[in-house]
Amino acid sequence: MAGSVAGGTPDGWLLARSLRLPECVRALDAGGWTALLAIARAEQMIGTLAWRLDGVAVPPGVARILAAARASAEQGRIVALWEAEAARRALAPLGVRVVLLKGTAFVAADLLAGQGRSIGDLDILVPRDTLDAVEAALIGAGWEWVKPDPYDDAYYRQWMHELPPLIHRDRDRMIDVHHTILPLTARITPDAAVLLADAIEVAPGLWALSPTDMIVHAAAHLFADGDLAGGMRNLWDVHCLIDQFGTDGLAARAAHHSLSREVARALRLAAALYGEGDGRTLLDGAYLRRITARDGWGRATRPFTRQTFYVRSHGLRMPPAMLARHLWTKWRKGGAGPASG
Amino acid sequence: MEDAGGGTVYRMARPETLKIVHLDSFAAIYHRASGITHLVTAPAPEILATLGEAGLTRSALLGRLAMDYELGDADEAALLARLDELVATGLVSTA
Amino acid sequence: MRHSFAVRIGPVGFRIGSDWRAPIAQLESLYATYPKPHDGVPDFTVRLFAARPWRRFVRPAVMIGGDYVLPEAAPLPLAQGLLAAEMGMNLQMALGQRRYLLLHAAVVERNGQALILTGISGAGKSTLAALLSLRGWRLMGDEFALLDPETGLIHAFPRLLSLKNASIATVAAELPADRFGPLLEGTPKGSIRHVVPDAAAVAAMDQPARPALILFPSFGFEAAARDVSPSEVFVRLTQASTNYVAIGERGFDALTALVRTVPARAIDYPDTASAVAQVEAAWLDR
């Protein structure tokens, strides 16, 4: 396997192995540590790594870097929970159930997956027929539109599974309001009503998806709602959720949401990276090569694989005519393709 | 303005979430729940202290402020505007 | 990457990788007397790379990357590769530093006590720091003051001094030529020339100092001085910090303690000679 602790060219597998077997980092030399930290930062998993290595003997210089990463993740947790609380206060008069998604949900519910996790925007799920009221309440509480571009605005509203992102004018933090977990353009339509109905209250007035739905969402997010960027973190989420909650009822739930294939693949990939994985398919290997495509400088590598998956992910999300129109509009504005380098 | 939210009870953030350092005529408040620092001057600290954790309605707050502090000649609308600012910061909550 | 260089500046280790040899050679020469990162593991990685493979050779433009990046950062011509490296290192500090509260300030030290010079860009911090270092002060840094929340001490960060435009000649009049890097003309900030800190500053860079005075210099005014209230210092220093919010409560504790215990003055100065005299006077009065 590429990227072994001793020798070889480091890649995402070095990070995967360090998360899976923390003690193995004791074999790292200075160059190995340097690569591991750069890869972990590039994957936005330095906080996760720092928590995972808490208590493992590491060189003092590394210990200081990891301590700073833990402190940074802790501050990120505080800020993320406050954004959730701010949304709760803004939406409380509506009586709408605010269901937190992704990182904010993990830390609100105090899950393993949330430990040290970097958290960006606040993602919430609300019933589709409340979107207008939710939008109005958020704007009344200080959130503002990010995208003044009319094409983007129409695109979000018509085809994506969320309102165009809003940003808070004082706190400078984004909120994404979803009404389902996949775009309406995707051929797959998860049962949003069931997601909402089975949500669990994790803090007063704040809800999260049921554990099985969290796993289904993580899988859907990885394969159908992105270009596999952030795949290492996403699969770590899946790994931690399964570790904590097991897989009872998961297959049935995935089938109910028409996401059996995606969930099965996410489980295999998570096991390959972070568990005792074997039994991967040929295509799993391609996914893993893409997901672990990082070098010891934190650079994205294997650009051909990346481009292929970018097109593929768009193909999943949009029917062909709409895809052409979207790429054309993006291209005209000079923003085509994923970042590289 | 005075009628808005007539029966609503306004509460100070839990005291263990606040760290207040008096600098001069301004006080710096670190709000642990949000990670946000606020720099405030009178009457904001007085409003917070008066509301307390139990909380008060708008009219009860005005009455208490007039009684406890020499804010008697302060414009009520201005005091309530300060209260609304504190709600926007999260240092005071209504829900 | 093809070429690389590692260095420690004060408590912070860096690794700079580059698609080109030239910027690395300049770093090696200018940072020749500096130590390597603790335990061989840098705190931050900087990458200088070509946007497309052929841009290594054709109108080579240096993109700045690293652990932390700003998406809108524009590339620089290869002749300014040294500036790109310095900007990349500053960027890692500004966006990624979490151990110390960063204040955008120059710092000099005397008798174990630190003088913090802060204020808007163009106030002459780097020039003042360079001149003071020639007059019995130890240079601790011209860009960032590193305030340690655990101890309240300032740690040195004596990277290359960055002189701009007219200040290049002012300092060149007093310094030997071998302390200067190449003259970089036509940069986004005009002409820039880097200066290697003196040997004493490099030798003592692991010695922190207790903050004793905060000065807000303003260039271009009649000589004047006034006290600055703690709340004003607090606001101005939060604005002069790139990581105050990210550090959270430790930053609040460190900064409120600093502004309550350390006196602060604003000084206006018409020329550098006057500035040095005003700094010395404020130091005696503190």
TrEMBL record, chain A:
Entries under InterPro entries matching the protein: NTP_transf_5 (IPR039498)
One Pfam family matching this protein: NTP_transf_5
Name of this protein: Nucleotidyltransferase family protein
From TrEMBL, chain B:
Stored InterPro entries: PqqD-rel_X
Domain of life: Bacteria
Name of the protein in question: HPr-rel-A system PqqD family peptide chaperone
Annotated source species: Sphingomonas psychrolutea
Organismal lineage: Bacteria, Pseudomonadati, Pseudomonadota, Alphaproteobacteria, Sphingomonadales
